[in-house]
């Protein structure tokens, strides 16, 4: 049983009541506050008392006891609930802590995080210890319970078991089941998935789907099987279709699906002005996409597209809390809620001048409070630098397959017949076909093929960042691929671009081989540099980082490179198995 079953123990609750009675002093009192009451959908005036991490009182009174209380005059400011990001992939080169620290400066202080990396790379005990460690920060972090690996991995049945799923769903920091990328299996009759969905529902935890392009009939079936929400709407019509059937629909603005502006325009044209079953998400975008903000950026877009201010701020806070059945803790400025409050200079500007999270100042009068986020011992948490006790050999770089993988965009890949001679140590730069290898991080197996569309001049590239945590190698020259691998190994994991056997640039990822220790501001610079180098070498799409992540992701069509081999997604078969080394 998790030791923190309750947010506040009985003794602490009695202290909260004692503050109201004047027997204890509040930690902070916000006076002359104009705040958004999300329940009345109105801006009201009040004094707000905060004790430690909780809002104690909202009303006209001032406390009887105010010894050591910080009193803040909020005249000419507008207070709204802290923003919530309901769909976070917190391992996109950044780590959960660095992302939270960055996002909180612009008002996003609560996060509902993907647990895929934790469940694939850590033992359950270490994963839960990691979650506990994240709970010690000034941000509020919740988690998903994945029911599938989103790819074809070895021994998946040993990882995704009913006891493991129940333990994850029982964890108080886990708010939902999903996202369910294996919904075709559910549709085809997989009763184990259905059982796990029912286990989530009996615990009053919603289940999130993953239904891009789903028909009305598919959405109906998924609703009958227990799915509550979906973040894959791409148009206003998609949103309408989901709301009609009782889904909560995420309005997405991400690095590969920046659909929010168009969706809002289309909803406006269709005459739909109903927002209670919608909220915003940035869907785990890559670092550089966040240069202009997180949920505050989606809010700014919504306000620009004519969404009423009160509705927009509810979408960024209360609607999320209500969906996850945690409105008693989040999403409003009211007694009993966690003290997550954003202070705005103007109702129409969602970027806060000051931010409170768990009653701590994250930012005050435009100045970030860096000590709000203490450092984490990543090695103790089980996320050490990548340590490979094996070496890549030239014999591993043998390419004889007739079937390759052709990129249609960042993430959609089709099979194609290889048209170049792949028997040598180099490939011509007159075409965009490159060597591609996925190799086990433990060194036990490899999969070799050709990828078309990643670039015509990428000589050697290595990445320990991938969907499965295994190693991706891409390039025109085997010698440069070897050099990139060796450098990636030496720095404890990362992304490395090599040309003429010299390192052009790298992004060290020493946290488990997939995450950076750098602040997001610095990581944005590193990623931008790498992206520009890849663009200059012929990468013709927008987001190479997502390409690397999704090379193995079998929830996307049509063909993938996975630990089991080259996989036909549509027919659910391994076309060419992985080779033991």
UniProtKB/TrEMBL annotation:
<dbReference type="InterPro" id="IPR032466">
    <property type="entry name" value="Metal_Hydrolase"/>
</dbReference>
<dbReference type="Pfam" id="PF13382">
    <property type="entry name" value="Adenine_deam_C"/>
</dbReference>
<dbReference type="InterPro" id="IPR026912">
    <property type="entry name" value="Adenine_deam_C"/>
</dbReference>
<dbReference type="GO" id="GO:0000034">
    <property type="term" value="F:adenine deaminase activity"/>
</dbReference>
<dbReference type="InterPro" id="IPR011059">
    <property type="entry name" value="Metal-dep_hydrolase_composite"/>
</dbReference>
<comment type="similarity">
    <text>Belongs to the metallo-dependent hydrolases superfamily. Adenine deaminase family.</text>
</comment>
<protein>
    <recommendedName>
        <fullName>adenine deaminase</fullName>
        <ecNumber>3.5.4.2</ecNumber>
    </recommendedName>
</protein>
<keyword id="KW-0378">Hydrolase</keyword>
<dbReference type="InterPro" id="IPR006680">
    <property type="entry name" value="Amidohydro-rel"/>
</dbReference>
<feature type="domain" description="Adenine deaminase C-terminal">
    <location>
        <begin position="430"/>
        <end position="572"/>
    </location>
</feature>
<feature type="domain" description="Amidohydrolase-related">
    <location>
        <begin position="78"/>
        <end position="361"/>
    </location>
</feature>
<dbReference type="Pfam" id="PF01979">
    <property type="entry name" value="Amidohydro_1"/>
</dbReference>
